[in-house]
Amino acid sequence: MTDYNQLVAWRRYFHQHPELSNEEINTTAKLQQILEEHDINILETPLKTGLVAEIGQGDQCIAIRSDIDALPINELVNHDFKSVKSDVMHACGHDIHMASVLGTALQLKAIEGQLNGRVKIIFQAAEELGYGALEVVNTGIVDDVSAILGFHNYPSLNVGEFAIKSGVITSAVDRFEFNIQGVGGHAAKPEQSNDPVIVLGQLINSIQSIVSRNISAFDEAVVTIGQVTSGSTWNVIADQAYVQGTVRTFDANVRDLIEQRLQDIAQGLTAMFNATVTLNYTKLPGAVINDQQLTDKAIQVAQEVGYNVNVMEEPLTIGEDFSGFSQQIPGVFAFIGSNSNYDLHHPQYDPDEMILKKVPSYFVNLVKQLLV
Ligand SMILES: [Zn+2]
Ligand SMILES: [Zn+2]
To answer: Binding residues for Mn(2+), per the UniProt record (predicted)?
Structure first.
């Protein structure tokens, strides 16, 4: 049994030394050192950061994934293990994930002889960029994996709470950017310019008509404009405007429809105002879709290890690049309570470390159920 205090110590080490996506050099070295100290085999991969370890032997193989990256946030929690970097923080709790999965790996190593197959332990870089999982998939390292398990700590649930659903559990996350190119000039002579702020006003209204007028009452989507910029002072007509925001969807057809409507709006406004309106649309992680059978097993095991399980009625509108795995392999992803007054990605995010007590037991028992 892995000592809880050891997991806390590892979590605090990672918390104190956070690294941004794709820069997790020290984090990877620390993970490797801990795994090697416990005789756990690290597999060869071309990954620059992150690593894949393997425990057990045999044909069957399942995987457990933890993400490892931090965020460009200035931490405002005053622990004695506060981030040593003023502008980087483990504000998504990936430090909690690493410690939990390390604990899992050590427990699995201790029962390696009883495992009827192999377990790949994936410490994955760059989750926050939305494509770290795909980079692992593209190495081929999960080609022999028949099921993948993951979790995210969740601050609005108390420690001991476990939330899950089969099917779609997180949304697809896309980013859109509009550039409006007009013609600037003197504020007193609008007839000699082409004011991008007028186009901007129409654009904002048009974007917000998509969910209300193009999406069926039986489908769901969020379209949010997060940033609008134009102009520099009161008596000048600007020559450019910029809008960016995000689209969250649960269904691929709805996702495509919204992208198409945004494109139509760009073209329509270009024609209407004789300005140049261009759209840059970036598809980030798709929706995480939980396998029904794995979800049933996960619920059973979570209850056995003492979680209070609640089956979610609706998916969350957050994104999670675990979808990079679960689009290729049957997967199951759960939300486990970490009880913080502040949400994920907040500078005062402060998860309760008691979450570390049960997560390894959940994974170990689920592995035992699956490797039969
Ligand atoms: Zn995050
Ligand atoms: Zn996260």
So the answer is: 92, 94, 128, 152, 345
